[in-house]
């Protein structure tokens, strides 16, 4: 803390902001707007809290970027990185070599993932994991003598990363508009978002309707051309969209019917967030491939990968070389930190804590949020939740998008020591899994306070 304080204080906030604007291109950022305002400079963290360069304490209800599952300041992860850096900071896994940390992590991942998974391909990020998926499923089908099976189907408003294939799989129209995406043979169906597409139907009926959009698309394209379907168990970046309980089992049935590979993007949902180790277990699917990142190291160092089921790994193993890999596939330091992180999740019994204790408690406390006059719907799945802001609670009528009510609410959160993200007018949280009940209370009280402030401002503006 002393070091962090002295480092942060070596320049004023304004100086940090000026250097930031001068040299640092941020992800997904309007730099002209950022330069006018100046970035918020985060200087240190402990548990579920961050501190900025002005000394403000902030409750991080987003776990960094959906990743700091075990919270900040876990000394065991620091020690694992330090030890590994001293012993062997890097060696690659090409050319028939391997390293103990990568082997140990591969073994541990096979243990904590569902039984069909016995192998892992390491990447550095979720995006690279999904790029790997695209190449791997096409290579799988080509190896089986069906090279025409090249199409991957995903969902509008899904998020699968920012690389060419990741952003193509994703269904974010703003991303497709830049850089010539999607790449060929990627098709999208509508998302299982009851609030937007399903009102008038029961949630359960809508779940089946939305799953059947997949079957319609498969039949439209020709089942013999479809390689895989990919989705997030719960859409995260799209706005924490929790599908109806009927959706995923029906998706599984449809994939089985046509022999199509099912890919679960567990980059957000993995490592306990939904109350099971992986979101597919919560949703009741049996994926053939599973992308992970973020929570595998609690974000302390970058690491991602693809879990590969026996169905796929058997074919890969008997068809020569898969011409794919990264310098840092199986990076020893990242793997050592991931192993320490997974062992910590096991020792703390964190998945059961989420499923039996803190997840249900959060859901219960969010009922107070759902009662707020500005809130049309609250959805949660263990430690991820969405709060939909509406103009008219009784009619579930939304604000005009150009009013940017979500951003207005987010500004109140920022100003009051709470990090909550806005996706349109959907306020979202995904707090660290290590939260106590008292901390859930603190977070919910902050949310309610910020909703009150937002409502007051909207009233003053005459928008409600
Ligand atoms: N898939 C999902 C579901 C994600 O949420 C993300 C990142 N938010 C990614 C993939 C991409 O991961 P990364 O940013 O590590 O490339």
UniProtKB/TrEMBL annotation:
Keyword Transferase assigned to the entry: answer is: yes
Q: Which domain of life is it from?
A: Bacteria
Q: This chain belongs to which protein, by name?
A: Aspartate aminotransferase family protein
> Which is one GO molecular function term here?
transaminase activity
Q: Which UniProt keywords apply?
A: Aminotransferase, Pyridoxal phosphate, Transferase
* Organism the protein comes from: Roseateles rivi
Which cofactor is essential here? pyridoxal 5'-phosphate
Short name of any one Pfam family annotated for the protein? Aminotran_3
Q: CDD domains, alphabetically?
A: OAT_like
Give the UniProt family note.
Answer: Belongs to the class-III pyridoxal-phosphate-dependent aminotransferase family.
Check the record and name the NCBIfam families matching this protein: PRK06105.1, PRK07480.1
């Amino acid at each position: 803390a002393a070091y962090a304080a002295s480092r942060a204080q070596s320049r004023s906030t304004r100086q940090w902001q000026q250097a930031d604007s001068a040299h640092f291109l941020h992800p997904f950022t309007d730099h002209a707007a950022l330069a006018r305002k100046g970035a918020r400079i985060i200087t240190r963290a402990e548990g579920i809290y961050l501190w900025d360069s002005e000394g403000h304490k902030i409750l991080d209800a987003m776990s960094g970027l959906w990743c700091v599952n075990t919270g900040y300041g876990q000394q065991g992860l620091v020690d694992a990185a330090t030890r590994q850096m001293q012993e062997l900071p890097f060696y690659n896994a090409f050319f028939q070599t391997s390293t103990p940390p990568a082997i140990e992590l591969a073994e541990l991942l096979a243990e904590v993932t569902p039984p069909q998974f016995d192998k892992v391909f390491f990447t550095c990020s979720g995006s690279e994991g999904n790029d790997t998926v695209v190449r791997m499923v096409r290579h799988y089908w080509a190896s089986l003598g069906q090279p025409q099976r090249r199409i991957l189907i995903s969902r509008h408003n899904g998020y699968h990363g920012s690389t060419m294939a990741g952003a193509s799989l994703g269904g974010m129209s703003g991303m497709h508009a830049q850089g010539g995406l999607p790449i060929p043979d990627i098709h999208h169906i509508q998302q299982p978002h009851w609030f937007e597409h399903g009102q008038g139907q029961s949630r359960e009926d809508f779940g089946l309707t939305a799953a059947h959009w997949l079957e319609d698309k498969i039949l439209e394209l020709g089942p013999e051309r479809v390689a895989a379907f990919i989705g997030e168990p719960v859409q995260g970046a799209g706005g924490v969209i929790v599908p109806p309980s009927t959706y995923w089992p029906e998706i599984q049935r449809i994939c089985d019917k046509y022999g199509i590979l099912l890919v679960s993007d567990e980059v957000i949902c993995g490592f306990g967030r939904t109350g099971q180790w992986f979101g597919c277990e919560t949703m009741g699917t049996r994926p053939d491939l599973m992308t992970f990142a973020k929570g595998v190291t609690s974000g302390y160092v970058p690491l991602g990968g693809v879990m590969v089921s026996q169905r796929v790994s058997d074919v890969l193993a008997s068809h020569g070389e898969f011409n794919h890999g990264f310098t840092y596939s199986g990076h020893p330091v990242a793997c050592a930190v991931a192993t320490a992180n997974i062992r910590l999740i096991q020792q703390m019994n964190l998945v059961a804590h989420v499923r039996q204790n803190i997840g249900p408690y959060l859901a219960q406390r969010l009922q107070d949020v759902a009662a707020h006059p500005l809130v049309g719907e609250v959805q949660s799945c263990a430690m991820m939740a969405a709060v939909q802001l509406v103009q008219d609670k009784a009619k579930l009528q939304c604000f005009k998008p150009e009013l940017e009510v979500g951003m207005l609410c987010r500004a109140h959160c920022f100003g009051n020591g709470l990090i909550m993200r806005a996706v349109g007018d959907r306020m979202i949280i995904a707090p660290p899994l290590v939260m106590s009940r008292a901390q859930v209370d603190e977070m919910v009280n902050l949310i309610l306070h910020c909703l009150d402030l937002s409502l007051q401002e909207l009233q003053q503006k005459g928008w409600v």
